Amino acid sequence: MSQVMFEKFCVPALYVANRAVLALYASGKSTGMIVNSGDSVTHAVPIYEGHTLPHAILKMEMKMLTERGYTFTNTAEREIDRKEKLCYLALYFQEEMNSVVREEPTIDRKLYDIPKGNVVTLGNERFR
């Protein structure tokens, strides 16, 4: 990463830091505990005077809680799921839009289940 920044982008200087330390600095402190919850893992990172204590870092995989029946799905996760499963980049955008206007069956319509048992049919919304 450093080599690319210096050689390709000609940056005069570069500073690489631990994300947890930067989060603590943002609160105006240099010693503390940062709890970082991501989509599949949570880290508890103790920091002393701007340095992480690697031997004391705790990691908890949230996926295990999901397997036990706890769900942590939020609206953003559902939106990402819809986009990844249904959307695509139309190679011939205008042709596909024209076929929608003419109601030709060339557009691959998809059904998507949304919460509360409703089903939505998507046509050109998948690539517009």
What is the structure about, briefly put?
This protein is α+β, with helices and mostly antiparallel strands. It contains five helices and six strands, in the order H-H-E-E-E-E-H-H-H-E-E. The chain has two domains: 61 residues, ATPase, nucleotide binding domain (Nucleotidyltransferase, domain 5, 2-Layer Sandwich), CATH 3.30.420.40; 52 residues, Actin, Chain A, domain 4.
Write a structural description.
- It is flat and about 65 Å long.
- The model has no long low-confidence stretch (mean pLDDT 81).
- Strands 1, 2, 3 and 4 form a 4-stranded antiparallel sheet that branches.
- It has 128 residues and is an alpha+beta fold.
- The chain has 2 domains: 2-62, ATPase, nucleotide binding domain (Nucleotidyltransferase, domain 5); 75-126, Alpha-Beta Complex (Actin, Chain A, domain 4).
- It has helices at residues 2-7, 19-26, 62-67, 75-86, 93-101, and strands at residues 32-37, 41-48, 51-52, 58-61, 110-114, 118-122.
- A hairpin with a 2-residue loop joins strand 2 and strand 3 (51-52).
- It is built from 5 helices and 6 strands, in the order H-H-E-E-E-E-H-H-H-E-E.
- Helix content is 32%, strand content 23%.
Features:
128 residues, alpha+beta, Nucleotidyltransferase, domain 5, Actin, Chain A, domain 4, 2 domains, four-stranded antiparallel beta sheet, two-stranded antiparallel sheet, 5 helices, ATPase_NBD
